[in-house]
Amino acid sequence: MGRYLFRLPDIGEGVAEAEIVEWHIKPGDLVEEDQTIVDVMTDKASVDITSPVSGAVRFIHGEVGEQAPVGSVLVELEVEGPGNADAASTEAEDKPPQARPVSETVSAQTAADPDPSEAAAKGPREPEPRAPAHKPRKQDDKPLAAPATRRRAYALGVPLQFVSGTGPGGRITPEDLEAYIASGGASPRPGGLVERHDIHEQKIIGLRRKIADRMQDAKRRIPHFGFVEEFDLTELETLRKALNNERREDVPKLTLLPFFMRAIALLQSEFPQINSQYDDQAGVLYRHEGVHIGIAAQTPNGLMVPVVRHVEALNIWSCARELGRVTTAAREGTASREELGGSTITLTSLGMLGGISATPIINSPEVAIIGPNKLVERPVVRNGQVVIRTMMNVSSAFDHRIVDGHDAASFIQRLKRLIEQPTLIFLERP
Predict the structure, then answer these.
(1) Does the chain have fewer CB atoms within 10 Å around its N or its C terminus?
(2) Which of 323, 276, 315, 334 is nearest to 297 (CA)?
(3) What are the start and end residues of each CATH 3.30.559.10 domain in the chain?
């Protein structure tokens, strides 16, 4: 038998380390070649790491949430044949506290559990006392208790109706009252309301930690300039419904986002600095002629931003089709790295939960993000008359290092014109 040291492989794209997200093995397990042993996450994506050989797991290195450098030992396996490390070099490896061989684990368990013969000599253990189960009485049942017990219950605000009695005939003893209080049932509020004191600790790892780090970095490094404007979507909604009623079954249903996507693409040549990526470390702004729109999408694993590429070359129906494809891939966890990176501007929408306004955070290294809010019908004044219109507030944020306030406001006003007069979206430019 030999020892095989499995190291974190080079995942590519200049990745120097990866976060351990989930172990699929433990010491003592038998693994087969190509079996998934650990999930890791880089800045780009989550990656399943498989074993290159079959063998028995002796050690695992690294806890969930830790960063493992590329080339560091993740797993030590006992394999048939010589392996890739001799015994001397293996014993010299520094092992983290949690990486213990199976034999040590068994020894520790043996030391913790008494010898069966010794346990038999000592006789059966006394059962550990348990707090009595407190079940509320029926409404017609009168609780029995001594006057002193009643006075203490009254002072504590404890209705004896909720305290189970262990005394003769179900009488509530002072010990029953104290046990009820110790179990967290003291001082119920009217209507059965009680105070809760439990605190649940959750370690932030994996995608959730990546999201937190990126958001924190964006807010710390980017001076956000926010702008909110109301859009009248009455005409757009009429057009959208008409187009959906006439579409074929194999054609995706139009939402509002494809119209925003096409409008943003039409404004690229007029506002090239907004469709950009800013490398603030190098002090270089990359202005893209191709419009690659990131779509902020909520997934079971957290917020992700799949990308619809080259929107400038897509019509409204193609936008809808690509939008559906990349967001579905993100939610199902099948999106590729290319589909989750490289956006030049982001659209974020909460749909019916959009509220009247929002403060979107820029998806660095981009310099702008647009957030359509909730669509509502409300009275507005048009030509001196109060009429009901379909309105929406559109929130936006811009990197103030790159986009001046005047340019940001001008961009939103031009976007508003295209959305409020949607036929302009379909006109060919001279």
Answers:
(1) C
(2) 323
(3) 207-426
In the chain, CATH 4.10.320.10 sits at 147-192
State the pTM of this model. 0.64
Categorise residue 337: left if φ over 0, alpha if ψ from -120 to 50, beta otherwise.
Answer: alpha
Bridge partners, 288 (sequence order): none
- Residue range(s) occupied by CATH 2.40.50.100 in the chain: 2-112
The H or E element spanning position 147 is helix 147-156
Which two tokens mark 235? Answer: 């005409």
Cβ neighbours for 385, distance < 8 A, ≥ 6 positions apart: none
144 burial (CB, 10 Å; 0-12 / 13-18 / 19+) is middle
The torsion angle over the Cα atoms of residues 412, 417, 420 and 422, rounded to 10 degrees, is: -120
pLDDT in tens, 120-169: 444 555 544 444 444 555 555 678 888 778 888 888 888 887 888 888 77
Q: Please give the Cα distance from 189 to 253 (Å, whole number).
A: 51
Decide: 173 and 167 in contact? Cβ < 8 Å. Answer: yes
Cα–Cα dist 77/26, whole Å: 11
80-100 pLDDT, tens digit per residue, is: 888 887 544 544 444 444 443
Residue 238 to residue 252: CA distance in whole angstroms: 18
Between CA 30 and CA 78 the distance in angstroms is: 9
- The CATH homologous superfamily to which domain 207-426 belongs is Chloramphenicol acetyltransferase-like domain (3.30.559.10)
| String of DSSP letters for 240-255 | HHHHHHH--TTSPPP-
Q: Please state, in angstroms and as integers, the Cα–Cα distance from residue 288 to each residue in 272, 276, 281, 361, following that order.
A: 7, 6, 19, 21
Q: What is the CATH number of domain 147-192?
A: 4.10.320.10
Instruction: Return d(Cα 28, Cα 245) in angstroms, integer.
Output: 61
Q: What CA–CA distance (Å, rounded) separates 168 from 203?
A: 49
Residues marked active site are found at 400, 404
**Among 147, 104, 92, which Cα is nearest to 160's?**
147
CA 239 to chain CA centroid, nearest Å: 36
* Average pLDDT estimate for 385-403: 96
Burial of 116 (0-12, 13-18, 19+ CB in 10 A): exposed
* Burial annotation 355-375 (CB, 10 A radius, 16+ → b, else e): eeebebbbbbbbbbbbbbbbb
